[in-house]
Each structure stands twice: as structure tokens, then as C-alpha cells.
Design a protein that fits this description.
single chain, about 475 residues, alpha+beta, four-stranded antiparallel sheet, 24 strands, globular
């Protein structure tokens, strides 16, 4: 995250915050000097009970206990000996108030937060006096987000049609960790999907490999018992796999497949009484501990589903190779004020009111400055099109771990084409989404760039740890 002061004629960076997954944070001032580092222990920044903090990048680490309320808000910070060093309180909408009198602080007089976080675990941005809810910024005085929610989560509930509202106007009941789907943790969707697939898988096992539920023995208690066990195991393995995939660690995809497949196979072995083997999938291959044998793509005796599972896992392995040893974040920005919209890739966590300062990496459009009368078909293009990345724009924003060098190389390639007047823009085969899709694919983030709304939906799932190979182990675990 980069915070820029635009109050003067020469904008300046006042804060740069670097993240490693959701457990480590490093702050730098405008000169690039590291001012503090935080390592959350026992959970992430939204749930950890303990944090290690130090000044600069070489000082001594100090452990602090983090007190939280039922919403996850940071209410107290204590030393390991129990000394309270900070105490905070919030009204129902997240406005800071005096913990003794419960009187809200006036705007501009809010306290500082030694851990940088407060209401429901979100980051406090003191320069704008708003909470950073990841996908959107939230104003606790207004009780509203500063940009609209891209999702209508409860179509049957009228409160959800105010797209600036915070958690259906029920702040004591729900939280919004992602700034998009209230009450939904970033990996809960993967848990639900895993539970559904696991329940189906359990039914198949109980009915001797019969894939059609219409032919299952619904009078057998095994069908229901195995479906329940499958849902439980599938939910746990889905949660674990998606959490690892979304963590941004090196080899995140392969690691997520390994962890999820092993968890699933052990759980299935237990609830079926040993009817299935204990195994682990590595993507393109797997190992059966029970029968001491390897499985892999193209192995003699594989069924079609086996090879489909291994091909899917292979894509995860290839993705890890393309992502490189140290993935870095970029933001996919999708402007959706109309059905045409625009797709761009910008530097991660970068947002400002100053459009001059918002240099995008990939933002292809028609060159209207030199060819104002051109149409949208096979005309000279530019990679300097407005990325719609400023505060107040109607956008969807997804933060994605990529091979940053690959993205940068593709950006430079487009810029060279533009300088030589060889960059062509066409909505058919060389549009904004064409080039954001290509750049992401080359950097290890596989997608289908048919339309920018479809690409944005894929990246929503990707950023939440759901990948094309997330459940491939269901096909290779027998």
C-alpha cells in the first residue's frame, strides 16, 4: 500500500506498507527508511492473539498480547508481563471513542494505533481518517464505504441495494474482512465449495463408485453418513488449500494441492473405515502411502478422470514455475460504469486522487490523442489509457500475486510497440482485456480473457485461493 500526499503541487509519498501474505507488515516513510515491522503470531492481522513488533529493520523484537472484542477489533495491546500500553474503543460503526467516557473523538483528533489496526482488525489510514477494508475504504463517521460494492449478496433484502452501506447496516452482527462480501472470510467460499464436492464424493464412495445420485441407495445410512463425513473433510481441506494458495508464498499452488490432498485423504480414510488409501498429490503426480505406489499423468491403467486430475495439477505446477520464487502483488482494476468498461493492471495497493501520479503497468486503449476520429477497430493503440485507478472511480479491484518482472517486461514490450507505432488496438483481438489477460497468463496467473467482467470474476476467485486445480485431488485420490 502506498499513501501519497497530494496537497501540494509536488505530490510526495508519506507511507509505503509492504505485506508478506497476511502475517507480516513493513512500514517505510517517504524517504524509503523502514520505520517499523510487525509479525502476527497465531493467526493473521485480523485474528492473531500475539504480535512481534520492532522499530526499523534491525531493532529488537518485542512481543505484545492483542486483546480483541467479538468483532475482532483491537481493544487493547499489552506487554508479555500484562502491562497495558494501548486501549481503544469504537462505536458500532467503527468511530474511535474514549475508552473511559465512550465519547467519540472529534474528526482529526483520533488516536494513533501502535499496530496500525483497530476496528474489526482493519488498517487505519490517519491521513484520510478512514479504515482500509482491503477492496474499499470505509468512513466510520458516515458509516459508509467510499465506493460501491460490486456484489449484491442478498438480492431478496432491500438493505443490500445500497451499495455504499456497511454490512447491511448491521455493524454489531457482521464484519466485512474483504470489503466486498460482508460476513464472508476470504477463504469461506472455498470451504463451501469443498464441502459440497466432498459430500458428493462421500455419496459416490458409499454407493460403490456410482456417480449418479439418482441411482444411489438413499435408504442406506452409509449414504448419509459418508456424505456428512465427506462434507466435513471436504470443507476443511478446501479451506486449508485455498488459504495456502492465497498466501503468496513460493510454490503456493503445489503446496496447497499437497496440504489439501493429504488432509482430504486422511479424513476420507477415517470416516470410511479404511476403504480409501492415504495419499498425497503433488499436482502432476501423487503417492499412495497405503499401497506404496506412485501415480502420475499418462500412467498405464489411468482412467480419464485420473488424467484430467493430473493435467489440472500440472497447470498448478507450471503456474508456480512462472510465478517465480518471490511473487509480488499487482492490482487488476476493472472499470464497470457501463457494459464496455476497461481493464488495467497497476502497481499493487496503489490508489490516489492524483491521476498524473497513477502510472499503470498495462492499460491498453485506442490512441485518441493522435487519432481522435478513429473507431474501436484496428487503429493505433496506446498503453497509456486511463487506468481508472483514482479514488471515486467505479471499479472492481483484485490484488493478485504475480511474477512482477514478467508483467514489467510485457509492459515495456507494449510501450516499445507504441513508440514504433506498431501497437494496434481492436476490441476484437487486441483490446484492454486481451493484454491484461496475456500479461497475467505469462506471469503464472492462468485465465481466459474473453471479457473484462469474466476476467474480473476469475481473478476474484484466484485472489481468494480458488484455482482451476484447487480440487484436482478429488479425481486422483482413489
Amino acid at each position: 500500500m502506498t499513501v501519497t500526499d497530494d496537497s501540494s503541487t509536488t505530490p510526495s509519498v508519506v507511507l509505503t506498507r509492504i505485506y508478506l501474505g497476511s502475517r507480516f507488515e513493513r512500514d517505510k516513510d517517504g524517504s524509503g527508511t523502514v520505520t517499523s515491522e510487525r509479525l502476527w503470531l497465531g493467526g493473521d492481522a485480523y485474528s492473531a492473539p500475539v504480535v512481534l513488533k520492532r522499530s526499523g529493520s534491525s531493532g529488537n523484537w518485542t512481543a505484545y498480547n492483542v486483546g480483541r472484542d467479538l468483532l475482532g477489533s483491537v481493544t487493547s495491546v499489552q506487554t508479555s508481563s500484562g502491562t497495558v500500553v494501548e486501549q481503544r474503543s469504537y462505536d458500532p460503526w467503527g468511530r474511535a471513542r474514549d475508552p473511559q467516557t465512550l465519547v467519540p473523538y472529534s474528526s482529526g483528533s483520533e488516536p494513533t494505533y501502535m499496530l496500525g489496526r483497530g476496528f474489526t482488525g482493519h488498517e487505519w489510514i490517519p491521513y484520510a481518517r478512514v479504515w482500509n477494508a482491503n477492496a474499499r475504504l470505509y468512513d466510520p463517521i458516515l458509516g459508509r464505504f467510499l465506493s460501491p460494492d460490486p456484489y449484491v449478496q442478498e438480492p431478496g433484502f432491500t438493505q443490500n441495494y445500497n451499495r455504499f452501506a456497511y454490512v447491511l447496516n448491521s455493524p454489531l452482527k457482521y464484519t466485512d474482512p474483504s470489503g466486498e462480501l460482508f460476513g464472508v472470510d476470504d477463504v469461506l467460499l472455498a470451504t463451501i465449495v469443498g464441502a459440497v464436492i466432498g459430500a458428493y464424493s462421500g455419496g459416490v464412495i458409499a454407493n460403490e463408485g456410482q456417480y449418479s445420485p439418482l441411482k444411489w441407495n438413499w435408504k442406506s445410512t452409509d449414504t448419509y453418513t459418508y456424505m456428512f463425513g465427506g462434507a466435513l473433510v471436504g470443507g476443511v481441506s478446501g479451506y486449508l488449500g485455498s488459504a495456502i494458495a492465497a498466501s503468496g508464498i513460493p510454490l503456493a499452488n503445489t503446496s496447497s494441492i499437497m496440504a489439501a490432498s493429504l488432509t482430504y485423504s486422511i479424513g476420507t480414510y477415517l470416516y470410511t473405515g479404511g476403504r480409501t488409501p492415504i495419499s498425497v498429490s503433488f499436482g502432476v503426480a501423487s503417492y499412495d502411502f497405503t499401497n506404496d505406489k506412485w501415480g502420475f499423468l499418462g500412467r498405464k491403467g489411468n482412467g480419464k478422470l485420473d488424467d484430467i486430475g493430473y493435467v489440472s495439477g500440472l497447470l498448478g505446477n507450471i503456474s508456480d514455475v512462472l510465478l517465480g520464487p518471490i511473487p509480488q502483488k499487482v492490482d487488476l482494476v476493472t472499470e464497470h460504469s457501463d457494459y464496455v468498461g476497461h481493464s488495467a493492471i497497476v502497481q499493487g495497493d496503489k490508489m490516489s486522487n492524483n491521476l498524473e501520479e497513477l502510472k499503470s503497468l498495462i492499460s491498453v486503449g485506442p490512441d485518441r490523442s493522435n487519432y481522435p476520429m478513429g473507431n474501436w477497430h484496428w487503429m493505433k493503440g496506446t498503453n497509456q489509457w486511463n487506468s481508472h485507478n483514482a479514488i471515486g472511480e467505479i471499479i472492481w479491484r483484485h490484488s493478485i500475486d504475480v511474477n512482477y518482472n514478467t508483467i514489467l517486461k510485457y509492459s515495456n514490450f507494449l510501450n516499445k510497440l507504441e513508440l514504433s507505432e506498431k501497437l494496434i488496438y481492436s476490441v476484437e483481438l487486441s483490446s484492454c482485456v486481451t493484454h491484461t489477460s496475456i500479461a497475467l497468463n505469462l506471469s503464472g496467473v492462468f485465465n481466459i480473457g474473453i471479457h473484462l467482467y469474466i476476467l474480473s470474476s476469475q481473478m476474484y476467485l484466484w485472489s481468494h485461493g480458488i484455482r482451476p486445480w484447487s480440487y484436482s485431488y478429488y479425481l486422483t485420490n482413489k
